[in-house]
Every structure is written in C-alpha cells, then in structure tokens.
Amino acid sequence: MKLHPPPRRRARLAALITAAATAALTVFAGTVLTTPASAATLFSADFEAGASGWSKSGGDWTVVADGSQVFQQASTTTDRARQFAGSSSWTNYTVQARVKPLAFGSGGVAALAARSSGATVMYRLALTGGNRVELQYMNGSTITVLAGLSRTVSTGTWYTLRITASGSTISGYVDGTLVGTATSTAIAAGRIGLFTGYAGARFDDVSVTDSVTTPPSTPAPSAGTASPSPSSASPSPSSASPSPSSASPSPSAGQPPSGTLYVAPNGSASAAGTLANPTTLASAITRVTAGGTVFMRGGTYNFSSTVTVETGNNGASGALKKIAAYQGETPVLNFSAQAEDPANRGLAVNGNYWHVYGIVVERAGDNGIFVGGSNNIFERTITRFNRDTGLQLSRTLSSTPQSQWPANNLILSAESHDNADSDGEDADGFAAKLTVGSGNVFRYAVSHNNIDDGWDLYTKTDTGPIGVVTIEDSIAYNNGTLSNGGQAGAGDRNGYKLGGEDIGVNHIVRRNIAFNNGKHGFTYNSNPGSMTVSNNISIDNDERNFSFDAGTSVFRNNTSCRSSSGTNDRIIGNSDSSNQFWSGTNGSRCSGLSGSLGWSFASDGRLVVTLGGAVVTP
Asked: Where is the composition biased (Low complexity) (predicted)?
C-alpha cells in the first residue's frame, strides 16, 4: 500500500479533531469524562503463567486454580494484604479486575486500588462484608469514603470492579454499575493494587488502559434492563426487525441460566461449557439453543480460519441465539494468522436471529464481521484492522436467491476503524452492498480512519438493486486516513457513499455527522434514486460536504460548514430553505459547530457527540 503524506489542510484540521481521534467526551452530573476511541492497554494479568510483575506487601498470596488460574490472598487475620503492579508515574487510567471474596472477618474488605503512591496511600474500590461497595481514599489508617452503594456482597461470587482516574475525577463501578464519582486532588499518580483487609479473596483478569471510561464493548446490560430503544422519530426498520431488549443478561457464576454456555481463550471443544470448564466459540455456536447465550470470557482468541454461524443455524423471533461478552470483560477475536484473501473472513454470521454483543474482531484477511443472515443484531461490536470492510452485509454465495439476501439486520452502537486492504479500494468501516435485502439499519454507529469509506452502499447491475438501508444517528470521520496517518491513492475516502452503477435505491440517511473525511461527506455515488436525506451535519470534508449530482432525493434540515474554503455543495433533487448548504460562506448554524469532535456511548447505547465540548444533536 502506497502511503501519502496528509495534505496541509488535513494536518491543520488535526488540531481541531484530536478528541475525535483519541478521546471521547461526555458529561454526566457535571463530571467530565474522557475516553480514547481506541484505548491502549498499559498492563494486563490473568495469572495463567504465575504472578510475575507484582510486588507483595503483607498477606498469604498464591496462584491457585479456579476454573482458570487466579491470584488468591487466603489470610483473614491480616489487616493490610497488598500486591502492587505498574508504574508510579501512571496518572489518568482505568484499572479493572474480577474479585471474588472468600471470607470476611470483622470490618473486612476486598478491594481494587488505583494511584497507589505508597503502601498505605491509594484510592480503592472495596467490597465490604456489610453489603456495601465503597469508593475510598486511604491515607495510612484514615479511610475516607468518597462514594458508596448498597449492594449484596456474597462470598464465593465474582464481581467486576473498575476504577477510573482522570485528573481530579475518580469514579468506581461494580459489574458495570456506577458506585459514584468524586473529586479528589489527594493523589496525582501511582500504581495499581490488589488489597484485602481481614478478608480472603481471589483476583483475576486485571487490566489497565489509558482509557478514562470503559470502552464501548463492555459491560453487558444487567438482566432485565432494556437495551437502547429508538425514539419515536426513529422507528425500527420493520415489525420483523429483532429487538435487543433482553439480549445480554448478566451471567451468574453460581447458577447460570438455562441454555448458557461459556467460552474462554483456553477452552476445549469437548468441554461442558460451564464457567469452570469453558468450551470454544466454534463448539458453542453449534450447541447453543434458541434463546440461549454463549458468554465469551475476556482475553484474546487467536484464529487462523473463519468462525462461522452456518446457514440454517437459527434462533427464533423472540428467542435469539446470543454471543455476548461476559459482563465487564472484553473478548478479542484476532485473525492475524490469516492471509489477505476474500475467503478469510473473521466472524461470519450466515444464520438468522442471532445477537452478537460486546466483542472485538480484528485483523481478519477480509471482513471482520460478515453478515449473510437476516433478523440479527450486532451491538457494541468493534471491528478494527481488518483487511476489508470491518462489518459488511452481503449475500452468502453468488447463487443465493434474492429472497434470501440479508434483511432486517440491526447494527447498534458499534464502532469500526482502521480497516485497510492492500490496494486501498475496498476496506470501509461499514457496508451493505452488492446484494442485501430490505430493512437493514445502522444506528448509533461510529466509522473512522478506514482506508476507503465510512459507509459503502454500493450496488451493481449484474446483481440487481440492493434493498433500502437506513443509516441514522451515526458518525463518519477521518475516513481515507488511518490512525497512523497512512493513506492509499485508490481509496474513495467518503464519509457516507450511498450508491453505485446508476441504480436508484431510496435509502434513508438521517441525523448523521460527517467530519473531515478525505473526499465527500455525503455522496450519492451514482444513485439516482429518491433518498431521504434529513437533519445531517457535514463539516470540513476535503471536497464537497454534500455531493448529489443526480436523482430526486429529498433534502430537509441539513447543515454544511467549513473552517476554510472548499468546494461548494452540489444538490440535485427536492431541496428547500430548511437546509443550510455551503456555497462559499458559512450560515448562521455554523457558529455553534466548531472545535474538536468528541463522542462516546451513553450507558443505554445512545451516541453522545460533542463539538468544542458542546453536545451536538443533528
């Protein structure tokens, strides 16, 4: 792949969009939290190879077996048993671990620590024997409770604890639920720690990232909690479309729900698939029943061949089969062993009525996630560094009849970035192209830094028109340039590419943002149909913000802005004064649409977007 240096305007705009490439911004209860769109891992430990890298201060610590290897502190008579790891210079980071209390003495705690600047100076998130979870500041023998939550704390049960430290803001979470957020300037930097006081406990799956909130792939919603639902202005694609409302229940370590299977990176195909005896993903896919869940433990799963949900392996309406990240953990499906080849996909879902939640798919030889089935949901997925489009919908085989093309799929609160093929022509963030049925929807999705386009809805004369696709409440930015600055001359570099081959398809494109893409923000791409293009914002794309050279599309309430000169928008179709297109000058709406781009997923999965720190609603 030939790389070209970024053009001068793009380099200048990089200063405006640092947050878009490296951090997301949202505000909850007056507290500003920032999150890298792609967090870097600073440290991880699963104790499978022992406990090297940790330093002990008190207690009886050993690595023991508990399904997998875990780090145990057995003494309940030690008031301060600690293990420390990491760097004393770490400042802003998130530390997460699974913690299982074994026994509590009087006043006992089992805790995860952050910013430990000394053996007895730290922030810690503590499980207590008094059925409380508390975010605390420890300074010698003085314990200050910063926030607390009443919560049943049972011995023999795993809990996922997470502490986020960002400047003076300290937040704690248990099993994905916010314990509390506090402001404290007592400790600026420090190591991570595992801590027990008058308690025995086990610890596992410790991770530290330079993120300051949880990446969007975790945690799964609690049982019975509704997943994101569209507003009245955003109907589901059809009554037949799958609903995510009950798709990702929290697993119970003690009594897993009926139909549940567990998989882990070290699982065995012949294993029972219990939490203590996990199986493999490929095996679980063939064994899970309609309405059942395959829970994937965190860690990296290395594959050399495609993992396939075969045609005919179906769930049912109201009883989807599910592949979900185990609560608070991030499974990464890594296909770097594959060569670049159209046959080498990552996860291929050719069955119907499946729900895939909270997984990362990376470095496949072709598509990261390929969707050939219908009535599926792909939620909180991340597809990255694949050698074709990150997540693509298309027919399974060239012989697949049009009645069986993928239809009524929902891609929800998903991210796709840094996908790049060797010639730079085909690797988009998301695509529904060549051959798809109707009713496919992308909602709250983020596509950025892909070598070709953010979205591609290309259709061809030799396959027939694709069905209507809806893209709503989503963002495309920096497409055409990878996160490392790499570019390819053959890439189209659009934010939203909406057609091809002069075939008219009436797509619906509403409430989206295109920002700083390498060619057009929104382009008809030879689709002469009557698309609905409404309430979109397009800012500082290298050529046109809106480029529609033919067709009868309807344009309402769209906004186009630039920070410098650029090509005028081109609109053919039904357009009225509700739009503010760019024809050499900015309109009044642009005064509130400047500064750095930030984004994050709210707890319910909705996409929160900011420009210059102000929340933007297209």
From this structure: 220-260
Could you please report the per-residue DSSP string of 255-299? Answer: SPPTTEEEE-TT--TTS---SSS-B-HHHHHHHPPTT-EEEEPSE
Residue tagged 């600047």 (tokens):
117
Q: How many domains does the chain have?
A: 2
Q: For the segment 320-373, what is each residue's pLDDT rounded down to a tens digit?
A: 999 999 988 999 999 999 999 999 999 999 999 999 999 999 999 999 999 999
Residue 535 falls inside a structural domain: yes
Give the Cα separation of 161 and 604 in Å (integer). Answer: 20
Are the CB atoms for 322 and 245 separated by under 8 Å?
A: no
User: Using CA of residue 440, residue 446, residue 450, residue 454, what is the dihedral sign?
Assistant: positive
* 477, HSE (Cβ side, Cα atoms, 13 Å): 31
- Which position among 100, 322, 433, 497 bears the catalytic label? 497
Residue 198 belongs to domain spanning: 41-209
Residues 366 and 514 in one domain: yes
- On whether both 49 and 180 belong to a single domain, the answer is yes
Q: Report the CATH number that the domain containing residue 390 is assigned in CATH.
A: 2.160.20.10
- pLDDT digit string (tens) for 238-249? 333 344 433 344
Would residue 279 count as lying in a domain? no
* Shared domain check, 337 and 195: no
Task: Kindly state whether residues 73 and 203 are assigned to the same domain.
Answer: yes
What is this structure's pTM? Answer: 0.64
Residues 482 and 333 in one domain: yes
In a shared domain, residues 479 and 348: yes
CB 419 within 8 A of CB 392: no
- The 10 Å Cβ neighbour count of residue 478 is 27
The two three-digit tokens of residue 301, written as one number: 């799963």
Report whether pLDDT(29) > 50.
no
Looking up residue 114, the CATH number of its domain turns out to be: 2.60.120.560
Cα–Cα distances (Å) from 119 to 111, 115, 198, 204, in that order, read: 14, 11, 17, 21
How is residue 254 written in tokens?
């003690």
| Residue that the structure tokens 């805790």 belong to | 111
Rounded to a whole number of angstroms, the CA Rg of the chain reads 25
